[in-house]
Amino acid sequence: MSIALKTLAVLVAALTAGLLWFFPFTVGTILAGWVGGLLFEYFLHRLYHSHNIGTHKEHHTDYFFLEPLETAKRAHPLWEYTKYALIVLICLMPLAALIGWKYYFIFYAGMVFHLMVIYQAVHFLFHYDKHLPQSVTSSEWYIWWRLCHIEHHWHSSRKNYSVSCPFIDMLFGTYEKPRPSYRDVPMKRGGRKVEVVAETAEAAQTGEA
Ligand SMILES: [Zn+2]
Ligand SMILES: [Zn+2]
Q: Which of 29, 31, 56, 69 fits as disulfide partner to 106, beta carbons 3.0 to 4.6 Å?
């Protein structure tokens, strides 16, 4: 990890600790909302695969046959994510009876911040990271973090569901260690795009769904 990143991590940790000290319940509720967002990301992705949900299958096919930037752009339909955010807002309402409206909205803010900002940015960048500094993209931790998701695309579509935090997969027993290297995408088959719905490289190569 570069010096700048280490300094940033220390500053964020110190700021969080300071805020926790002065506003323990507010910061604790935001952090709880963030954890809620991480879990929501994990279980929604898992649901996508267990129920073969169309838009996500398209993302897995795009990965093999479109240019990385196009894959990244198509994977983030903001209107669809906004709908999820509204569904979560409604489903979580019973929580307001427990912690009050103020903290309900604070919890929700933490959750939505993760889903609409952190997850979107991390997943987009894992598919197209040409603009990230080389000091980041060549660092060991970044390579491992990104390859966890690439492994999910290439070989293990029922593993590594959490894009933004592979430790969640370790917690639920769905972690798969990334391989040292992967072939470049997109795959070319006689120069034409192949109309298959592929979850893994094997499926893409054989043309099977
Ligand atoms: Zn992806
Ligand atoms: Zn997936």
A: 29
